[in-house]
Write a structure and sequence with these properties.
By secondary structure, the chain is mainly alpha-helical. The protein contains 15 helices and three strands. A three-stranded antiparallel sheet has the order 1-2-3, with no helix packed on it.
């Protein structure tokens, strides 16, 4: 999805919504994917309100409700109670898979939290940036509590097992990919987007979320993996001549291909491929760094997290590891001996 594609993926959006999406994309630097998700969430919100207010025929399918006529007068009538009703609908009645006859109903708390984030951003824009609303009707809207499970990751031993098992016609390339994941904690899109010119000495420039750049430093393992891979690199087509990682078809390697080869090598290493992905390798890198003394602020910079709260999950992993370590102590099951109570001697 191209950065300038708001007009493409927001077809049918009213002018107010289109302006907001352009603001999020160009001023706030949100990715095209995130901006598209904002559009989908807000479209669902407006469809629900039009249906509830009797502004569409009762028999009209929900997903066919047009929102192009939504204007400022309509938005000014929205109340906090409207948003609560909408969230109740999403929690209880909204199909989880719209096109499946066997779907369940009611989306998760995490999904509802994302939709609340979209609503907050939209009304904050209308109030604080565009100056179209005198007050924000949902300023007191709370998000549902979302339980964040600890991310899955490989142990250092599992990681070594994975690297040592890499074989095949593209072994040098795949080994280099896995090494960069496990040592640098890159996102899969960041790794697939690497160019030869991004490397300078012992560092690499990475293009992260929202077009934000950061510099990562390469350790000896990364440098050795790159030195082994580059002589074997397939000559790419001219359009991808700068790409670091190249597919067998001479194209820049795709995100989907990277995901596939990670699962392939994890499975061949005898590890659980069902629960492993490039993102889990990113978690592995972060966890191993934190467990071996990297402070949380440095880890935030390495991972490219905008908020420190996102990085703090790795402190909880460490706590869990420490707790597990105490249970594995061979003395952990020892119980105190039941002793007979001494009878006091008579004087």
């Amino acid at each position: 999805m191209k950065p300038d594609s708001v007009n493409h993926y927001a077809a049918g959006a009213p002018p107010l919504l289109r302006d907001f999406l352009n603001y999020m994309l160009t001023i706030r630097g949100r990715s095209a994917k995130t901006t598209h998700e904002y559009f989908l969430d807000l479209r669902t919100f407006f469809r629900y309100l039009k249906q509830e207010k009797g502004l569409v025929p009762p028999a009209l399918p929900f997903d066919q409700i047009e929102i192009e006529d939504i204007d400022l007068a309509f938005i000014r009538d929205i109340t906090l109670s409207d948003t609560y009703d909408y969230l109740a609908f999403m929690a209880q009645e909204r199909p989880r898979q719209a096109n499946s006859p066997a779907t369940g109903f009611g989306i998760s708390a995490a999904s509802r939290a994302r939709k609340i984030a979209a609503l907050r951003s939209f009304f904050k824009y209308l109030t604080d940036k565009a100056g179209l609303l005198e007050y924000n009707p949902i300023s007191n809207l709370e998000s549902p509590k979302v339980r964040k499970p600890l991310p899955r990751y490989l142990t250092a031993e599992d990681s070594m097992q994975l690297l040592e098992s890499v074989e095949g016609p593209f072994a040098e390339r795949d080994y280099c990919i896995l090494t960069l994941f496990l040592n640098c904690g890159m996102r899969v899109s960041e790794l697939a987007g690497l160019n030869l010119g991004d490397f300078q000495g012992d560092s690499v420039r990475v293009l992260g979320k929202g077009g934000k750049e950061r510099v990562l430093y390469l350790n000896d393992a990364c440098k050795a993996a790159l030195e082994a891979y580059l002589p074997t690199r397939i000559k790419p087509h001219d359009r991808d001549r700068t790409a670091l990682f190249v597919s067998r078809n001479r194209n820049r390697i795709s995100v989907q291909t990277v995901k596939w080869l990670v699962k392939k090598h994890v499975r061949e290493a005898g590890l659980d491929a069902q629960k492993m992905s490039p993102h889990k390798l990113r978690h592995t890198a972060a966890t191993l760094m934190y467990q071996n003394g990297v402070d949380i602020r440095s880890l935030q910079t390495i991972l490219g997290h905008e908020n420190l709260d996102t990085t703090m999950i790795y402190t909880h992993i460490e706590d869990a590891s420490l707790r597990e370590a105490t249970t594995k102590n061979p003395l952990s099951a020892v119980q105190p001996k039941v002793r007979k109570k001494a009878v006091p001697e008579k004087e």
